[in-house]
Amino acid sequence: MNSPTDEEGHANPEKSPLSASLLSKKAHLDHPIPGLTDPATQEAPRDIDDKPLEKDSEGQPVSQNGDSDSSSDAYIPPDYDDDGSELGSPVYVEDLDEELDRPPIGGETAADEKARALEIVDEVRVKDDGGAQIVVCRVSGEKDEVVAKIYDPLYYGFADRMWSDRPRDVTYQADMDYAREVAAYSELDSQLGGTDIPKYHGSWTFQLPLDLPDGQKTRHVRLVLMEHIKGRPMTDLEPESFPEPTRLELVTRMIEVVARVQFAGVRHGDISQRNVMVCLAEPDVVERVALIDFNFAVVSRLDNFEEQFRGLERGPKPDKLPSPIDRWWGGALYGVAGEWLPKSWELRLRALQEWLYERYSNSDEYAPPTRALKWDQENLPRSWIGT
User: Fold this and answer.
1) Range of the domain at 99
2) pLDDT (tens digit, 9 = 90+) per residue, 215-237?
3) Which CATH number belongs to the domain containing residue 347 in this structure?
4) What's this model's pTM, rounded to 2 decimal places?
């Protein structure tokens, strides 16, 4: 298959159909059954030496010394917006040909669904080399605007971000992101949709025609539709503009949302301020905190824990919410939201532990902590790696 190129074999952005794929303001959607691919096929979590992490009885990764690795959800994978480039990595003819020859894994269209028209009204994140594209749109038959997250492989980086000399299977990555998000939202929607997470409006496919020199090619691109939360990500807020009680309340609500998501059967895998949406009723009154971005999530009932960790047993699901003490006792909360915590704590682990213990150790709502509580005896300020 031929595509317009420059002398070095790059696809010409001015002539290539790539440049028009998200500029079209309308697309027709077909509705596939959620969960087209198996979300359980993700690789085991790995440590800094690229070794699979073991897991504790709650299914959480644990470090080699046996302590619960509460910082595992604080890890931030390479962000494609951080490369500083305006155009992203170049798209070569062979990249385009390979993607067109390897469409997404097939699925089935629900019998009771009809095609809808989608009109893009605003951009949230639209960038070459940026992974899933996010837009605000209107859908025929619906009065409220929704957010579409579009998993177009041609907008994923073709070069591996960790090993730049290696190519990246963008179709596989887009499929994996899509499958995990669909599985997570499908699992959580009836319990937490519209409160702790965006309300889920299903998984869809739209057909995107491309005019090429040797004829027209139709690409099938996956997307999910979800509630448009009228708030701001935590990263867009300035902690200094809020009084200390409000800052601590926001952090408290964030870690409690994480606990409810875990209790509902999903491990998010990428807890970060950029994935926490905040709605304010007044300038210093927190109305809603919601968790977004589930493309690293694992649905517990669909995972392959027994195969990955032979000899380890998954503990039974507790009757109460998992204690935030288990996840945050080691200090990972400083890395995720340290600037929101009280200044008087001075980045001391002991201060965080005392607050967690006082708030959650005897709670009627939360289960008792399952980990052995090792108190910080030094009680000195520390440096924490921010995420």
Assistant:
1) 17-37+76-227
2) 888 888 999 999 999 999 999 99
3) 1.10.510.10
4) 0.75
